[in-house]
């Protein structure tokens, strides 16, 4: 089976505007061939393809979450295409849910895997290589790759399952974002966030 990299998924998503999971499935189905994956998505999504991603997200909302103990707080910016959607209760609620998730996830430092600097990935890879040094040489690269993938999932917001698993049916932040984008017909973008914690 072809291994699909996160950068391939991100590139296909940028090109088509389709959700991360749809892009991953299309790439898997296409055996990693980008053009074939685009064709698969075109059949699946029809004329919706490309429209969402190409629309500039110039409106949005900044929402906050302060934990009950007053020791953790988060500000998050979520953008969309129109002021109408930015003021929509569901859109605002989504931004608040994201802020709450970040408050409960202290390891989260980036919106997406693409935002993680290469030097940070290299640093973690070097640590994982040392940790796997006692394993048989032929399996070490796979072990390191698995550890890196797990770490990226812990630090990249879009990869994470929302902390309120029951409420959101175990969906990832990216799946929730894609759902809202499909529902509103707008390009929903989690732009940035900052997390404050007393003593950190």
Task: Describe the protein.
By secondary structure, this protein is α+β, with helices and mostly antiparallel strands. The protein has 3 domains: 6-53, Ubiquitin-associated (UBA) domain (Helicase, Ruva Protein, domain 3), CATH 1.10.8.10; 56-111 and 156-197, 2-Layer Sandwich (Tetrahydropterin Synthase, Chain A), CATH 3.30.479.20; 117-155, no CATH class. It is built from 9 helices and 3 strands. It has helices spanning 6-16, 20-29, 34-45, 51-54, 83-86, 89-103, 118-131, 140-155, 173-184, and strands at residues 59-66, 72-80, 189-197. It has a 3-stranded antiparallel β-sheet with strand order 1-2-3. Strand 1 and strand 2 (72-80) form a beta hairpin. The radius of gyration is 18 Å and the shape is flat. The mean pLDDT is 87.
Number of strands: 3
CATH architecture of the largest domain: 2-Layer Sandwich
Kindly identify the CATH topology of the largest domain: Tetrahydropterin Synthase, Chain A
What number of structural domains do the residues give?
3
3D shape = flat
């Amino acid at each position: 089976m072809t291994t699909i990299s996160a950068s391939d998924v991100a590139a296909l998503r940028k090109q088509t505007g389709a959700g991360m999971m749809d892009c991953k499935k299309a790439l898997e189905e296409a055996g990693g061939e980008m053009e074939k994956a685009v064709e698969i998505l075109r059949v699946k999504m029809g004329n919706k393809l490309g429209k969402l991603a190409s629309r500039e997200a110039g409106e949005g909302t900044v929402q906050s979450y302060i934990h009950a103990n007053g020791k953790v707080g988060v500000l998050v910016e979520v953008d969309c295409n129109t002021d109408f959607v930015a003021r929509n209760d569901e859109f605002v609620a989504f931004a608040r849910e994201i802020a709450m998730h970040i408050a409960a996830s202290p390891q989260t430092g980036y919106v997406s895997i693409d935002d993680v600097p290469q030097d940070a990935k290299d640093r973690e890879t070097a640590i994982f290589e040392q940790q796997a040094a006692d394993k048989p040489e032929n399996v070490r690269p796979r072990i390191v790759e698995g550890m890196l993938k797990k770490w990226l999932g812990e630090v990249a917001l879009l990869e994470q399952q929302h902390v309120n698993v029951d409420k959101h049916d175990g969906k990832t932040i990216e799946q929730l974002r894609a759902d809202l984008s499909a529902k509103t017909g707008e390009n929903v973008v989690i732009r940035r966030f900052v997390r404050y914690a007393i003593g950190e």
